[in-house]
Amino acid sequence: MVLENPGDLLRLLVVAVLVYPALVVILRVSGKRTLSKLNAFDFVVTVALGSTLATILLSRDVSLAEGIVALALLVGLQYLVAVFAVRWPPSQRLLKSQPTLLLRDGRLRHRTLRRVRVAESEVRQAARSHGFGDLADVAAVVLESDGSLSVINRSQLGDGSSLADVRDEER
Protein backbone atom coordinates (compact mmCIF):
# COMPACT_ATOMS: atom_id res chain seq x y z
CA MET A 1 0.00 0.00 0.00
CA VAL A 2 3.03 2.26 -0.15
CA LEU A 3 2.44 3.03 -3.82
CA GLU A 4 -0.37 1.23 -5.62
CA ASN A 5 0.04 2.96 -8.95
CA PRO A 6 3.17 4.90 -9.96
CA GLY A 7 1.00 6.81 -12.42
CA ASP A 8 -0.80 8.43 -9.47
CA LEU A 9 2.46 9.94 -8.30
CA LEU A 10 3.15 11.32 -11.76
CA ARG A 11 -0.40 12.72 -11.92
CA LEU A 12 0.09 14.41 -8.54
CA LEU A 13 3.36 16.02 -9.67
CA VAL A 14 1.89 17.27 -12.95
CA VAL A 15 -1.30 18.60 -11.34
CA ALA A 16 0.62 20.32 -8.53
CA VAL A 17 2.98 21.98 -10.99
CA LEU A 18 -0.01 23.27 -12.99
CA VAL A 19 -2.50 24.14 -10.24
CA TYR A 20 -0.09 25.98 -7.93
CA PRO A 21 0.77 28.72 -10.46
CA ALA A 22 -2.92 28.95 -11.35
CA LEU A 23 -3.78 29.54 -7.67
CA VAL A 24 -1.05 32.18 -7.35
CA VAL A 25 -2.35 34.00 -10.45
CA ILE A 26 -5.95 33.82 -9.20
CA LEU A 27 -4.94 35.23 -5.81
CA ARG A 28 -2.81 38.00 -7.34
CA VAL A 29 -5.60 39.05 -9.71
CA SER A 30 -8.15 39.10 -6.88
CA GLY A 31 -6.14 41.69 -4.93
CA LYS A 32 -4.70 42.16 -1.47
CA ARG A 33 -8.04 41.81 0.30
CA THR A 34 -8.17 38.08 -0.45
CA LEU A 35 -5.10 37.45 1.70
CA SER A 36 -5.71 40.14 4.31
CA LYS A 37 -5.79 39.57 8.05
CA LEU A 38 -8.39 36.95 8.61
CA ASN A 39 -11.78 37.59 10.09
CA ALA A 40 -14.17 34.65 10.40
CA PHE A 41 -15.46 34.98 6.83
CA ASP A 42 -11.95 35.18 5.34
CA PHE A 43 -10.88 32.20 7.45
CA VAL A 44 -13.70 30.07 6.03
CA VAL A 45 -12.73 31.05 2.48
CA THR A 46 -9.08 30.22 3.19
CA VAL A 47 -9.99 26.81 4.59
CA ALA A 48 -12.23 26.18 1.59
CA LEU A 49 -9.36 27.10 -0.75
CA GLY A 50 -7.04 24.70 1.05
CA SER A 51 -9.60 21.93 0.96
CA THR A 52 -10.25 22.51 -2.73
CA LEU A 53 -6.54 22.50 -3.49
CA ALA A 54 -6.10 19.22 -1.60
CA THR A 55 -9.02 17.68 -3.47
CA ILE A 56 -7.58 18.78 -6.82
CA LEU A 57 -4.21 17.29 -5.94
CA LEU A 58 -5.37 14.01 -4.41
CA SER A 59 -8.62 13.08 -6.14
CA ARG A 60 -8.56 11.43 -9.52
CA ASP A 61 -12.26 12.28 -9.85
CA VAL A 62 -11.59 16.04 -10.19
CA SER A 63 -10.09 17.25 -13.43
CA LEU A 64 -7.49 19.99 -13.47
CA ALA A 65 -9.88 22.32 -15.30
CA GLU A 66 -12.66 21.68 -12.76
CA GLY A 67 -10.25 22.33 -9.91
CA ILE A 68 -8.97 25.60 -11.31
CA VAL A 69 -12.55 26.74 -11.96
CA ALA A 70 -13.46 25.81 -8.37
CA LEU A 71 -10.53 27.84 -6.99
CA ALA A 72 -11.39 30.80 -9.22
CA LEU A 73 -15.03 30.57 -8.19
CA LEU A 74 -14.19 30.64 -4.46
CA VAL A 75 -11.84 33.59 -4.86
CA GLY A 76 -14.30 35.36 -7.18
CA LEU A 77 -17.16 34.94 -4.73
CA GLN A 78 -14.98 36.20 -1.88
CA TYR A 79 -14.07 39.21 -4.03
CA LEU A 80 -17.73 39.95 -4.80
CA VAL A 81 -18.70 39.68 -1.14
CA ALA A 82 -15.86 42.06 -0.19
CA VAL A 83 -16.99 44.58 -2.83
CA PHE A 84 -20.58 44.23 -1.60
CA ALA A 85 -19.46 44.85 1.99
CA VAL A 86 -17.59 48.01 1.00
CA ARG A 87 -20.44 49.39 -1.10
CA TRP A 88 -23.20 48.50 1.36
CA PRO A 89 -21.75 48.89 4.89
CA PRO A 90 -24.72 47.35 6.77
CA SER A 91 -23.78 43.99 5.21
CA GLN A 92 -20.56 44.00 7.21
CA ARG A 93 -22.53 42.99 10.30
CA LEU A 94 -23.29 39.69 8.57
CA LEU A 95 -19.71 39.13 7.41
CA LYS A 96 -17.56 40.48 10.23
CA SER A 97 -17.80 40.71 13.94
CA GLN A 98 -17.75 44.23 15.33
CA PRO A 99 -14.66 45.31 17.28
CA THR A 100 -15.39 45.12 21.01
CA LEU A 101 -14.07 47.27 23.86
CA LEU A 102 -12.49 45.10 26.57
CA LEU A 103 -10.89 47.82 28.69
CA ARG A 104 -11.52 51.54 28.93
CA ASP A 105 -9.51 54.02 31.02
CA GLY A 106 -7.69 51.24 32.85
CA ARG A 107 -10.87 49.38 33.86
CA LEU A 108 -11.63 45.93 32.51
CA ARG A 109 -15.09 45.24 31.11
CA HIS A 110 -15.65 41.94 32.94
CA ARG A 111 -19.08 41.17 31.48
CA THR A 112 -17.77 41.79 27.97
CA LEU A 113 -14.68 39.66 28.61
CA ARG A 114 -16.92 36.73 29.61
CA ARG A 115 -19.18 37.18 26.59
CA VAL A 116 -16.35 37.24 24.05
CA ARG A 117 -14.41 34.55 25.95
CA VAL A 118 -11.23 36.53 26.53
CA ALA A 119 -9.36 36.03 29.79
CA GLU A 120 -8.20 39.01 31.84
CA SER A 121 -4.68 37.60 31.55
CA GLU A 122 -4.86 37.96 27.75
CA VAL A 123 -5.67 41.66 28.09
CA ARG A 124 -2.80 42.10 30.57
CA GLN A 125 -0.49 40.23 28.17
CA ALA A 126 -1.49 42.58 25.32
CA ALA A 127 -0.80 45.59 27.56
CA ARG A 128 2.61 44.19 28.54
CA SER A 129 3.52 43.44 24.93
CA HIS A 130 2.83 47.10 24.13
CA GLY A 131 5.11 48.23 26.97
CA PHE A 132 2.56 48.96 29.70
CA GLY A 133 3.25 47.98 33.28
CA ASP A 134 0.06 49.51 34.65
CA LEU A 135 -3.41 49.10 33.14
CA ALA A 136 -4.24 52.58 34.46
CA ASP A 137 -1.99 53.94 31.69
CA VAL A 138 -4.05 52.18 29.03
CA ALA A 139 -6.90 54.16 27.48
CA ALA A 140 -8.45 51.21 25.62
CA VAL A 141 -8.00 47.59 24.61
CA VAL A 142 -10.11 46.46 21.67
CA LEU A 143 -10.80 42.92 20.48
CA GLU A 144 -10.63 43.43 16.72
CA SER A 145 -12.73 41.54 14.17
CA ASP A 146 -9.67 39.45 13.23
CA GLY A 147 -9.20 38.33 16.86
CA SER A 148 -6.20 40.54 17.60
CA LEU A 149 -6.05 42.90 20.57
CA SER A 150 -5.33 46.59 19.91
CA VAL A 151 -3.93 48.64 22.77
CA ILE A 152 -4.23 52.43 22.84
CA ASN A 153 -2.45 54.50 25.47
CA ARG A 154 -3.86 57.70 26.93
CA SER A 155 -1.56 60.01 24.98
CA GLN A 156 -2.52 58.33 21.68
CA LEU A 157 -6.28 58.37 22.31
CA GLY A 158 -6.85 61.96 21.22
CA ASP A 159 -10.57 62.52 20.65
CA GLY A 160 -11.22 58.77 20.57
CA SER A 161 -12.53 58.85 17.00
CA SER A 162 -10.74 55.58 16.21
CA LEU A 163 -13.17 53.93 18.63
CA ALA A 164 -16.27 55.14 16.77
CA ASP A 165 -17.15 51.69 15.38
CA VAL A 166 -16.15 49.79 18.53
CA ARG A 167 -18.91 48.08 20.47
CA ASP A 168 -19.04 49.18 24.12
CA GLU A 169 -21.54 46.94 25.89
CA GLU A 170 -21.08 48.57 29.29
CA ARG A 171 -21.86 52.09 28.20
From TrEMBL:
Keywords for this entry? Cell membrane, Membrane, Transmembrane, Transmembrane helix
Identify the GO cellular component terms for this protein: plasma membrane
Q: Output the Pfam families linked to this UniProt entry.
A: DUF421, YetF_N
InterPro entries documented for this protein = DUF421, UPF0702_alpha/beta_dom_sf, YetF_N
- Places the protein is found: Cell membrane
Domain YetF-like N-terminal transmembrane: where?
Answer: 22-82
Instruction: Tell me the ranges covered by the YetF C-terminal domain, including all copies.
Output: 92-156
Keyword Electron transport in record: no
Q: How does it sit in the membrane?
A: Multi-pass membrane protein
Q: Where are the transmembrane segments?
A: 12-31, 38-58, 64-86
Xref: PANTHER family: UPF0702 TRANSMEMBRANE PROTEIN YCAP
Record-stated family: Belongs to the UPF0702 family.
Q: What is this protein called?
A: DUF421 domain-containing protein
Species, as recorded: Micromonospora siamensis
